[in-house]
Every structure is written in C-alpha cells, then in structure tokens.
Amino acid sequence: MDGNPPSRQSFLSETKTIDVLHVDDDPDFASLVATFLERTHEGISVRTEADPTEALSLIRAESTAFDCVVSDYDMPEMTGIELLERVREERPALPFVLFTGKGSEEVASDAIAAGVTDYLQKGGGKDQYDLLANRVRNAVERYWAERYLDRGMEAIETAQDGISILDGDGHVEYLNTAAAEMLGYDRREAIGLHWETFYDDDRVDEVYDDLLPKARTGRWKGTTSFVREDGTEIVAEHGLSYTDDGSLICTLSNPRRDGEIDLSRSVKEQAMDKAPIGVVLTDPAREDNPIIYANDAFTELTGYDKSEVIGRNCRFLQGEQTSEDAVARLRAAIDDQESATVELRNYRADGTEFWNRVRIAPVFDAEGSLKVFVGFQDDITRSKAQAEKLSKHSAYLEALFEHSPDMVAVHDADGVLRDVNDRFREKLGYETTDALVGKEVWDLDPTVDPDHAREFWAELEPNTPRRFEGELTRSDGTTIPVEIHLIRLNVDGTDLFLAIDRDISAQKRREETLLERNDQLDRFTSVVSHDLRGPIQVARGRLDLLREECDSEHIEDIDAAHRRMDALIEDLLALARDEAETTVEPVELATVAAECWTTAPTESATLDIRSTKTIEADVDQLRQLLENLMRNAVEHGGDAVTVRVGDTDDGFFVEDDGSGIPATERDSVFEPGHTTTDEGTGLGLHIVRQVVEAHGWEITLTTADGGGARFEIITR
Question: What CATH number matches the domain at 278-383, 3.40.50.1000, 1.10.10.10, 3.30.70.260, 3.30.450.20?
C-alpha cells in the first residue's frame, strides 16, 4: 500500500459524535464520569440523569438521540436490570452498558439474561473511565455497523439485478424481488426449488458439465436461457460463483425474451458495471499486475473513484490488520495462474475497515494464453460481526456454566437437554451430567405441557428473555420451585434454548408465611372487632344505667377507661386494615372531613372546613387519617379546640389552635407507642404515617399560625 496505512479506528467514530445517556442516582459520581469521558475521549458526549424513570422518558422522546446507555445497578426507584428490561422493550438493539459498583455473579447473570451489551464493575483510578470509554465505543461501532448493513441488505432487496443464493445441493435459499420477477415466481414459492426447475431439460447437462465446474474455479459469467413459471423463456446475463461454504451465488441482469436480439458488448460491459458485487480486471502482462477495469460496485465498496483505482495494484486496499497469510495465498495463485478465495481485512478510502471476501480467477484466450485476472469483492463484514456475536454468546455461556450461582441448562426445540452446569446437577442430586443430558424438559418439570411448550418455543423471539415459574424434580422425587429465565439462541444454524433456573424455595416459604400471617391477622381482626367490642359496648351501656341509678366518683373513671379501650380497638383495627391493598378513587376532602367529625370525642370542639379539593385516595384509609388527627387535636388542645382542614398547593392540611407539639418531640410523634396523655394509645399518629406512606404521600409537622399543631400532607 502506498503511504501510511489507514487508521484502525472506525471512520464513523472519528466523524460522528457518540451520544451517551448515563443513569446514576449519585450526581457527584455521574458528573465525574461525564467529565472524564468528554475531556479525555474526543467524540463522546454524555448526558446524565439521576432518575431512571426520567431516563426512559428521554429515550422515548428522543428515540434517535442516544447511541448508548450507561447505567448504575443499585438505584432507589429502579435497578439497572429493570431499566435495561424497559429499554429493551423500547429499543431492542440500543447498546446498554451496566457500570456498577455492585459486582456479583448474580447481577452479571441477570444482566446477561436481560440482554445487556456489556458489564463493567466500577473501580478506582482513571483507568476505569478509559476502559468504560473503550467499551462504549466498541459497542456503538457494532451498533452503527449493523444499522448500515441492514440498509445494505435493503439495497440488495431493491436492486434491479436479480440475485439468488443456492445451497450446496442446488436448492434456492434466497432470491431478491428482481430475481423472482425475472423468473415469474412468487418468492415464497421459489424458495426450496432446485435450479434445474429454471432450465429446459436439454440444457441441464450443459450446466452440470460446463457452467458449474467453471464457477468452482472462480466464477462463470455468460448468457443463459431460463424457463419461467408460466413456461415462457427469457435470456439474461448470468453470473455464477461459489462461496467457501459451498453456496452458489447467481446474478441475473438485462433479461430479454427468447428470440430478441443479442446484447451488444457495450451493453454487457454496462451490465457488469452495475453488478451488485465488486468486479475488477487486472493485466498480468503489465508490471505489478495493475487494475484495468473496476465496476461501480467496487468503487462504492471501497470509496475510491475509478481514476484513483485504474493503474494500481489491488494491494492499496491493504492495511495494518490485513492478514499476511491471505495476501500470500493470493500472490501464489496469481503466480501459478490459478483461482483462489480468501477473506481479509481491507480499508476504504476514508480509512474505515471492512471484511472482504476476495475471489480471483485467471481468464485465458482460445489459444490458452493468460489474458486477464478477474477479481470479485464481497463485503462480508456483517457475517463476520454475526460470527463475533456468536463467539461472545459462547463466551457468555461458558461464563454462566462455570460461575453462575444459578442452575443453567440448554435444551433443543424438542425439549431434549443438551447440557447442564454443575450447579444444576448438584441441586437435583445427580452424580454425573450424563445422567441428565438426553432427558426431556417435562421429565424434570411436571408443570410443563409438551405440546404447549413446543408451540411457545417456536414463537419465542430470539435473544428476548422470558420469565416464568416452574418446578424441578430431584433424583429422590422431591421438587424445587424455580424462577426460569429462558432465552432462544441460534448457534450454528440450530435453535437452542438457554434456561437460567433460580431456586425460589425461600421465597415460596416467605409467601406461605405471609399467607399464614394474613390468616392470623384476619382471625385477630375478627376477635378484636366482635369478641372485644361487643362486651365493651355492653359495659358502657350498663355504666349509663348505673349513672342514672346512683352518683359515684368512680363512674367517670370507668367511662374514661372504656373510651380508652374503644380507642385502642379502633387503632388496632386500623393497623390490621393497613395490611390490605390500597384502592384509590376521587374523594372530596370536605365531605370526608365532615363525616369524620360526627364521631368527634367532644361536642364543644369546632371543625372549620376550608377545602374545595378532590384528591385520589382510599376513602376508608383517608377517613382513618382524618379521625386520628382530629382526635389528636382534641386530646392535646382540649374540648374547646378548633380544628381546621384546608387545601395547600400540593395537598392539604389539618391544624388546631391548641398548645401545639414541642419541636423536641416532632421527630418521635409518629413512632408507635408515643403518647403524652393518659387517654392516648400511642398508635394514632403512627397509623397516620402508615396511611400516608401507603398512598405514596409525604407528611410534615409544623406550628400553626395560632400556635397549635399543623400537619401538612403532600399528595402530588
């Protein structure tokens, strides 16, 4: 190659800014990361966001703005894994790097199962930011490359020339729209047909004996007559070449009905100029075997103008990473006047790297003298990237099998186990892996229905994890409840299913304990509500009768004790109800406050309602909150206290004109058991806080303008 070799760095990353969205709830650390990446790595722009929910909104609102997401794992509202799962729903291919200080095999396993692009643990020093920048740059370059390759596939689909691929047995694996139209077939009907279908019977032997052998030496090109589906014939310029895996590439151009005039040489040259793959001719008789012809596809592939190509040896496409062995094989083939096919890294005019499948073949005249060498250039960057991705899948699988704390199994589309890790074997009590390999999934998981499972696997999107629960049967017949993360992978053309099984026995025991606790709570509520309240109501009734019959100083003390017992029962029932699910609906605050005041413990107190708001609340829990605050005001402010309920900009308030609550006690008033009066239960304000938290609200205690206590509840 003339001059200095092109840069190894991607041309895209040199000319296009990489926009990164960094999600981390620590603003100081996020700012530090942005500073390091932007200051020391030119071409990277970072936007930080502390709230994962807001980050999702940004991704939705600016669907093309970010090239990569970098996220912490341990965040209060949403973990990095949960954020990753939500991002994958919006943008499945967007690079996502988990950059976390919580490094564990469990987190890494979950990240892989959720489809993370890369996983990096936070460390000390500047090196961690350099490593992060390299990981981001590599991920984004692969992301960009896949997008551009998808566009290239679209170009093939819409090309005017017919292109088809046949397997090693000669059956059609793929053909573009143009090829289908030329041959008069529906594309779906043409897939699977043998090439003999498109030839007249008397020409099949010619293809076997002449065309295909020549194609195997490099490439065959000529004019061929084809039979269309309707029986008519067309004549088209036809090219044949084999790939290294034995597939046959066929190109068709300039079709004409049989019997029309033959194409002129200039038209044929024009057709070759428009071929969908790069074509060059070199003159071995001249010094350094220079290029004497290059078609349009070659210039598009390499980025060079024809004036920059003609007269030069093809080595100008080589660079620092070009394989010397591949180049040596090409030189040997040229020296020996033979065909050859190699795959090697080449470089475009702008310095970007691409993988090139180069096929060369000598062309001889009628006397057997070498005239030219023809070279075909195919961009196989995408297939190489897919191979690299498969290699990464394999690396991830190896890491999972060796290090995952979970049980890992791989089965095929028929449900037959292909492999399991040691954790899987040990957990199920088997001595060897061979004792499990070959079993069917439903042999181990009694919850699986074979027919339903096969249908589910067939429709499962590749590389899209699905989560569900099942059971695994141990060798002794006992079962383990498991949470299953299932991913469909395509390995060497075979569908395999990776199942990451997590033992959730402890979780199930907790759930059973919770159910038992709820049953006990129901029984407790029943006892308190019926077995205790009834006798107390009887006792209070009898006390009223006693008050009419005699006058005793003990009557009021007994009445006070009854009221305290009533208050305790109400508070205990409120605590029990707090375990229930909160169901919100639009509620008029003034209406509920007025209803609550009808149960006020004194007739001398005054309620002043200044609210016009309708709020979203569980009406029963809101009633409990207001009743407790009103009762608290009467207990501390006296029988003549005035209680006000009103609106604030972001919620409502309840205040009184009593003596207030000292600042030294405000931090403890919501704790269970805290009371400053003989009548108090110590649970009233604790229940208020539980109601507030159940709604996702906030509560603050301050001093009212008149000196009493003021409780402000923020509901927004």
Answer: 3.30.450.20
